[in-house]
């Protein structure tokens, strides 16, 4: 690993370590423009390397802006390694091939689907292996500063869509933890299933990167400048890089599945992240708060809830409602466990699909809301943030990673913020005396009680009912 202590970020981090006894530093990124802006500014400051690993990138504004930031860094001689999972990435192979032409950029795709013939048939005929995906998300600059969390590279994760707000969460991390994140990245980058884009991409054309850049410069520059300006205007960037907003010092460690999980049969021994997180969960003494967009506990998960609540531990589960969920099939798998969750003694909350402005803090944002945050809080001392959903796909099938941070200051502040937001942006789901579910919320100072899936049409409810045919193991 290259020594980057003499880079600008390396010197900044060294000063931080000296002042904070070698502890890593963290800052929450709850707003999408802050999260995008930090990535852009970090790319701008990069001097040695940028390593980024994502489940998906779309061919949209966020993708275009990120690509330009990587190209600008590479033009300065910064080494860029870009690792993408294949299945939901919508950025064309042509774009990735062009990026890969740059002397300082290498693009690899994890577990790619064959490009010969019909893609869908290729997926089905190799389903056993193609169904196993790399879900990790990290962005590391000069091995000194990282961003880890739930966001992919697409407009919805960065407040760039006009019709929907994605409530998501990342953390900015500096210090020793960034070195751990870099090592986790390397394990995936060097794995046999991480293939260079030019090994398998079809329809290769004799296009020159510089020619394509010149042809698209005017439009791309306009988009980049507009988004960059919006990101730069966020209060976080003004405060954080000027030193007015302090990082939170804490011990932390990376929790990560091995990439070998994806080539082995599903078994407990390969569910490293889930096993590590389960140990933390079982060591809780007073309170567990779980925020997960997709929650399918199955019988084992329900028993785990009972084990916690029987010990007097408060358990709070926050997930999507049917109206806010972007994966109806996953909601179908979750819905049949709602009464069991409540019966086990947990407090169950579902996000209100029209509370986008309440969570974004921007009155001109759309009302429509989808929860995508993956955040677990234990005893208001530990927090885990990363890519893991509490569903069978994340736990058993996909590879995941995240950070476990030991900080009463950070975890306590997040717990308070979560409870404040619950009061204005979520329904509490309860079972009434007749054994029926009810959704309770305070909206504009008035208590509202719904007796069927709130804010849904009959068609969406029908789809959720029909999707019960999907086995839990694939959710």
Describe this structure as you would to a colleague:
This protein has 475 residues and is of the alpha+beta class. The protein has two domains: 217 residues, Endonuclease, Chain A (2-Layer Sandwich), CATH 3.30.870; 225 residues, Endonuclease Chain A (Endonuclease, Chain A, 2-Layer Sandwich), CATH 3.30.870.10. The chain is built from 18 helices and 20 strands. The strands form two sheets. The protein has an 18-stranded mixed β-sheet, with helices on both faces. Strands 7-14 form a two-stranded parallel ribbon. Helix 4 links the parallel strand 3 and strand 4. The chain is globular. It starts with 7 loop residues before the first helix and ends in a 9-residue tail after the last helix. The mean pLDDT is 90.
Compute the gyration radius: what is it?
22 Å
Cα distance, first to last residue?
37 Å
Looking at the overall shape, the CATH architecture of the largest domain is 2-Layer Sandwich
**What is the approximate shape?**
globular
Supply the key terms:
475 residues, alpha+beta, Endonuclease, Chain A, 2 domains, 18-stranded mixed sheet, two-stranded parallel sheet, 18 helices, 39% helix, 23% strand, globular
Short description:
The protein is α+β, with helices and mostly antiparallel strands and 475 residues long. 39% of the residues lie in helices and 23% in strands. β15 (375-378) and β16 form a beta hairpin.
């Amino acid at each position: 690993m290259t020594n980057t202590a003499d880079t600008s970020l390396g010197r900044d981090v060294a000063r931080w370590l000296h002042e904070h006894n070698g502890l890593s530093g963290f800052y929450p990124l709850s707003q999408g423009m802050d999260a995008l802006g930090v990535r852009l500014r970090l790319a701008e400051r990069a001097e040695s390397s940028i390593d980024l690993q994502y489940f998906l990138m779309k061919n949209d504004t966020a993708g275009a802006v990120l690509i330009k930031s990587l190209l600008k860094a590479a033009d300065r001689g910064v080494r860029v390694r870009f690792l993408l999972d294949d299945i939901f990435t919508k950025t064309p192979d042509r774009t990735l091939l062009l990026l890969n032409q740059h002397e300082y950029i290498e693009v690899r795709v994890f577990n790619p689907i064959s490009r010969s013939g019909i893609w869908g048939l290729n997926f089905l005929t190799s389903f056993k292996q193609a169904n196993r995906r790399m879900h990790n998300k990290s962005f590391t600059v000069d091995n000194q500063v990282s961003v880890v969390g739930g966001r992919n590279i697409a407009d919805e994760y960065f407040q760039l869509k006009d019709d929907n707000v994605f409530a998501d969460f990342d953390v900015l991390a500096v210090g020793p933890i960034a070195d751990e994140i870099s090592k986790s990245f390397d394990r995936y980058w060097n794995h046999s299933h991480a293939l260079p884009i030019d090994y398998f991409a079809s329809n290769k054309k004799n296009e020159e990167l510089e020619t394509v850049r010149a042809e698209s410069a005017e439009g791309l520059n306009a988009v980049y400048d507009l988004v960059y300006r919006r990101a730069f205007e966020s209060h976080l960037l003004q405060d954080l890089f000027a030193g007015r907003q302090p990082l939170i010092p804490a011990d932390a460690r990376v929790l990560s599945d091995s990439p070998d999980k994806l080539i082995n049969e599903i078994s407990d021994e390969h569910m490293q992240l889930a096993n590590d997180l389960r140990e933390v969960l079982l060591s809780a003494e007073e309170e567990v708060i779980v925020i997960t967009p997709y929650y399918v506990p199955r019988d084992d998960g329900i028993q785990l809830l009972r084990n916690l609540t029987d010990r007097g531990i408060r358990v709070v589960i926050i997930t999507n409602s049917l109206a806010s969920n972007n994966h109806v099939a996953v909601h179908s798998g979750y819905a049949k466990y709602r009464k069991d969750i409540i019966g086990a003694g947990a407090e169950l909350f579902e996000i209100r699909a029209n509370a986008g402005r309440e969570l974004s803090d921007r009155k001109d944002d759309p009302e429509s809301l989808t929860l995508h945050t993956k955040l677990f809080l234990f005893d208001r001392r530990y927090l885990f943030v990363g890519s893991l959903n509490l569903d069978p796909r994340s736990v058993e099938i996909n590879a995941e990673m995240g950070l476990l941070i030991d900080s009463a200051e950070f975890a306590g502040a997040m717990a308070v913020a979560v409870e404040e937001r619950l009061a204005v942006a979520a329904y509490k789901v309860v079972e009434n005396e007749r054994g029926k579910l009810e959704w309770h919320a305070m909206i504009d100072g008035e208590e509202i009680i719904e007796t069927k899936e709130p804010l849904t049409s009959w068609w969406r409810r029908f789809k959720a009912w029909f999707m019960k045919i999907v086995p839990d193991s694939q959710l």
